[in-house]
Amino acid sequence: MDAISIRGNRPLYGRIRVSGAKNAALPILCATLLSDGESVLGNVPNLRDIETTAALLRFLGREVTLSYPEVRVHAPTGQVRPEAPYDLVRQMRASVLVLGPLVARYGRARVSLPGGCAIGARPVDQHLMGLEALGARIQVEHGYIVAEAPRLRGAEVVFDVQTVTGTENLMMAAALAKGRTTLVNCACEPEVEELGRVLNKMGARVDGAGTTVIHIEGRDELAPFEHSVIADRIEAGTFMAAVGAAGGDVLLEHAPLEDLEPVVVKMRKAHVDVEREGAHVRVRRGEVLAAVDVTTAPHPGFPTDMQAQFMAMMATARGRSVLTETVFENRFMHVPELLRMGARIETHGNTAIVEGIPKLSGANVMATDLRASASLVIAGLVAEGETVVHRVYHLDRGYEAIEKKLAGVGADIKRIRVEAP
Ligand code: UD1
């Protein structure tokens, strides 16, 4: 099994290139199901979640060519099997993003229920409610969602909660529905806005993506597209937290500063300097890292996907910070591992109180989700001695060559082979 070994206590200097956004690439890959012909995506990150999506698209009858950062998806004529099996969905919850496109395009979809997830229950009721409003008949049988509709019809959908993939699923379905759809209380994440741009390239008329109300004029047919994926705001934010924790001066090439506004505000309060430099962003740590409180919220709030990394940074800040998680109910699994590295953190429900200490101490740690793993890597950068982060496959789901990127700016970090823990 792969693990990551880090010897901490070294500041970071140099340049890191930010990759394409995983959470933008996944729905865009699923949007290729809405048309025939060949779609070409650029700036796609080389990640396990992209491989899983490619496997899913292939299962559905598409030809997928991965030559990172370019990915081609071709729809050959012939049988389509509109089904996402348990084995693929269980590897990646975002597989549920094929539900909307499949039922809209083929009149039927059978998609495994994603089931539980390490960071909370994460139901898909809003996806199903929305598709039903568009006229789909939905049943859940044998652990599968079965959705059927000869042709979806435009409708008004009001989401009870803001859901990113729920909004995206409905946008894709509505793009092939008959008539106009209005989605209300939508997620406003930049990745949703990006999907709107792609659907417009395909010929749908999407208005308002990136705001809480989205209008979609459906089409009888959509066309294939070419698109270069936006930069990954969470990857960029993770490197900001790494510099904040370890110190130094790093130029993040093509970091999407506007999309990161809520994170940048908190970074600056913590005395991490973040400045635009042409198309890039320079990140520098001031003398003393200051404690800052954070509450996660849907965009444009502080992203839940940055909470764990920010907590790792706060572990060595001066003073006490309070981190509150409001998006997922069980997203503090990194805390016990950070405690093993000497951090002083107490949790009360969805709140974590972090008492900053000068140094962490290296240890064997493991994490159960993607962003938690990233937080442990950051902690390793400020720990005395060696830290070994196990179960790196979580990290590989969403970070392209993170150890190479950090080694490139002076971190003492490498991938190693270990016996399965
Ligand atoms: C997406 C991101 C993930 C991020 C999350 C929140 C992708 C592929 N993944 O996940 O990285 O952490 O947004 O920013 O883009 N909910 C319901 N019913 C539903 C759907 C969601 O109650 O039908 C709840 C969830 O349990 C959660 C909240 O809504 O509490 C937000 O979840 P959601 O935005 O749907 O997360 P994902 O789209 O799965």
Q: Using the coordinates above, name the CATH class of the largest domain.
A: Alpha Beta
Q: Strand count, sense and closure of the main sheet? A: 4 strands, mixed
In helices, the fraction of residues equals 25-40%
Label the overall shape.
elongated
CATH superfamily of the largest domain: Enolpyruvate transferase domain
Question: What would your notes on this structure say?
Answer:
This protein is of the alpha/beta class and 421 residues long. It folds into two domains: 2-19 and 231-417, UDP-n-acetylglucosamine1-carboxyvinyl-transferase, Chain (Alpha-beta prism); 22-228, UDP-n-acetylglucosamine1-carboxyvinyl-transferase, Chain. The chain is 31% helix and 28% strand. It has helices spanning 22-31, 48-59, 86-89, 99-106, 125-133, 164-175, 190-202, 233-246, 261-269, 307-314, 334-340, 370-381, 393-398, 402-407, and strands spanning 2-7, 12-17, 37-42, 63-67, 70-75, 83-84, 108-112, 137-141, 144-148, 156-158, 180-184, 205-207, 213-217, 226-228, 248-253, 272-277, 280-285, 294-295, 320-324, 344-348, 351-355, 360-361, 364-366, 383-384, 386-390, 412-417. Strands 23-25-1-26 form a four-stranded mixed β-sheet. Strands 2-15-17-16 form a four-stranded mixed β-sheet. A four-stranded mixed β-sheet has the order 4-5-3-14, covered by helices on one side. Helix 6 runs parallel beside helix 7, helix 8 (233-246) packs parallel to helix 12 and helix 10 (307-314) packs parallel to helix 12. It is elongated. The relative contact order is 0.16. Bound molecules: uridine-diphosphate-N-acetylglucosamine.
